């Protein structure tokens, strides 16, 4: 996957961010960076809001190898699911009840997608590893994650993450 590459000179995050182009999403987009004490980027999270300011419908996270947000105890939800619940002001305790690996084609590339089954059935969550060891997690509220979504994923331009 040639488009999943490390940048020689980071412009924000030190890796390409795989997500949906903001122009392809009819709602509002927000982005957050997870910085490390040494100034490196330990993750990028994009919030896609279809609910008119009442919370996101989807969060897509990109976590590089070594990011502390990747370390979750067994049965606990990924960081992106926890952030989705916080944004929706939902304080219900949610746990991972099962996982299933599913092969999915993205263009000419095969992804092994891990579908997480959660105790809250209104949340859909999938994860996959990119070729540069960045973990992509997609958490959606009240929307199933179908194979069509993977065709919309693409690297976003670095300018979106530059401070200005």
List the helices and strands and how they pair.
Layout: E1 17-20, E2 28-35, E3 41-49, E4 58-63, H1 79-87, E5 96-106, E6 109-118, E7 123-129, E8 135-141, H2 148-152, E9 153-156
Antiparallel strand pairs: 1-9, 2-3, 3-4, 4-8, 5-6, 6-7, 7-8
Protein architecture, described:
The chain is mainly beta. It is built from two helices and nine strands, in the order ββββαββββαβ. The chain has helices at 79-87, 148-152; strands at 17-20, 28-35, 41-49, 58-63, 96-106, 109-118, 123-129, 135-141, 153-156. It has a seven-stranded antiparallel beta sheet, with helices on one face. The chain has a two-stranded antiparallel ribbon with strand order 1-9. The chain is globular and about 35 Å long. The protein starts with 16 loop residues before the first strand and ends in an 8-residue tail after the last strand.
